[in-house]
Design brief:
Shape: elongated
Structural class: mainly alpha
Number of strands: 0
Distance between the termini: 50 Å
Length: 94
């Protein structure tokens, strides 16, 4: 009985651990921008001390980096269900 119970539990527990929160949505472009402009960000810090060009550069870099992370996650998620050509055409940031 133990020989059957342990593999059965492993089959049930492992997929649940892999998808810890399947309902979590990726952030939209507006959410990424607001995150990068947040009070705790370097953008706010640079603006506060009058370094506006540094703030703009940081904001641009932050948005590009975070958007790339979201796109990569969406692409990987798409690849699990579809082929690469379809995923390259359809994966876009909302």
């Amino acid at each position: 009985m133990r020989k059957l119970l342990i593999p059965l539990l492993a089959v049930i527990v492992v997929p649940a651990a892999v998808q810890a929160n399947p309902f979590k949505k990726e952030p939209t472009y507006k959410q990424i921008v607001s995150q990068c402009k947040g009070e705790d960000s370097k953008f706010a810090e640079y603006n506060e001390i009058g370094m506006t060009q540094f703030a703009k550069n940081y904001l641009d870099l932050c948005i590009k980096t975070e958007a790339q992370k979201v796109l990569q996650a969406k692409y990987i998620k798409c690849l699990k269900k579809n082929n690469a050509a379809y995923c390259q055409e359809t994966t876009k940031l909302d």
